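4.2 Preliminary Data

To establish feasibility before requesting continued support, the project team ran the inverse folding procedure on a target of 332 residues. The structure was first converted into the token representation described in Section 3, and no sequence information of any kind was made available to the design step. The complete token record follows.
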């Protein structure tokens, strides 16, 4: 009988030793899992609790095993809290980095078609960036009526609603007799799934020109930079084109006359004659090609309608390093 009891006790000792060894391996494994997982702290605690279910029952174990389980739970919870805190701090740092990267990128590329003021402010506001409050207070890009309306829409929505309460947006551009006003353009942005902004600072005597439309209005009404110009700027542009045309005609007629006179002259040609003739030919070429090309360039850049890259607005709800994508002109 004593031999049987001794043998049973030895088996129990081996069972307890093996259980403790398994517990040690399980603790090490779950510590690694908890440190590396990106889940929230509730998920981490769930992982820890689920792992306990695979261990021997606490109340069937010896006192040492019970102490081990208590320490296991305490350590696991501490690990969960520390990891959750690290994950939250990392998320905050990532969001701050993303917001700052967006701010720097937009300030460097705001004149290009793939960076738009509406998308920029919407990203800062959606991602809860501190740069959004700075933009609203400084309003760095408020250069005309349209950009001022964009800031009003995002920074002072209540005031924007008051100003637009009596306005309406045309339901179809096919029946429109004129382009929407700048504040109506922002109203289109609110309900549009595809929105395009166009801007330019190269219009003579006009400063920066900025406007935006939904895609249907942009395509149906053949919108261009010239469509957004104030009447005075548009008239000034036509005057510049007319002056270039008149100069081209005068230069061609004058230099053509000089060339004909030299060619019909019966006097021997001297070096001065050859020099004057070459100058007349050079000026004639300027009148024939340079001035007409300038007129065409001005017209296409200001009044030319540009094709679109159809990309719908992606209103993101978290920081991913890119601002919402808008429908873009093919050329800027």
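Position-by-position output of the design step:
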């Amino acid at each position: 009988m004593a031999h049987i009891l001794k043998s049973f006790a030895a088996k129990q000792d081996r069972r307890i030793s093996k259980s403790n060894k398994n517990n040690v391996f399980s603790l090490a494994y779950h510590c690694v899992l908890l440190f590396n997982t990106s889940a929230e702290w509730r998920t981490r605690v769930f992982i820890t609790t689920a792992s306990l279910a695979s261990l021997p029952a606490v109340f069937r174990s010896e006192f040492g095993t019970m102490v081990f389980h208590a320490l296991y739970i305490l350590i696991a919870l501490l690990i969960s809290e520390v990891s959750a805190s690290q994950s939250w701090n990392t998320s905050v740092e990532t969001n701050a980095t993303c917001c700052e990267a967006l701010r720097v990128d937009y300030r460097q590329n705001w004149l290009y078609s793939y960076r738009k003021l509406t998308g920029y402010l919407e990203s800062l506001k959606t991602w809860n960036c501190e740069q959004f409050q700075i933009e609203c207070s400084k309003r760095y890009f408020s250069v005309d009526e349209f950009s001022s309306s964009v800031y009003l829409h995002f920074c002072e929505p209540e005031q924007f609603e008051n100003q637009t309460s009596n306005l309406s947006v045309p339901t179809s551009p096919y029946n429109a007799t004129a382009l929407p006003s700048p504040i109506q353009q922002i109203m289109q942005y609110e309900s549009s799934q595809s929105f395009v902004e166009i801007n330019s600072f190269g219009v003579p005597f006009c400063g920066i020109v900025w406007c935006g439309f939904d895609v249907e209005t942009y395509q149906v009404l053949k919108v261009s930079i010239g469509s957004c110009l104030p009447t005075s700027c548009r008239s000034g542009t036509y005057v510049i084109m007319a002056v270039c045309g008149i100069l081209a005609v005068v230069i061609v007629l004058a230099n053509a006359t000089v060339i004909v006179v030299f060619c019909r002259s019966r006097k021997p040609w001297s070096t001065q004659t050859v020099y004057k003739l070459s100058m007349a030919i050079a000026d004639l070429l300027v009148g024939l090609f340079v001035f007409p090309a300038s007129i065409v360039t001005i017209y296409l850049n200001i009044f030319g309608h540009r094709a679109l890259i159809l990309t719908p607005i992606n209103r993101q709800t978290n920081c991913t390093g890119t601002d919402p994508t808008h429908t873009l002109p093919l050329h800027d």
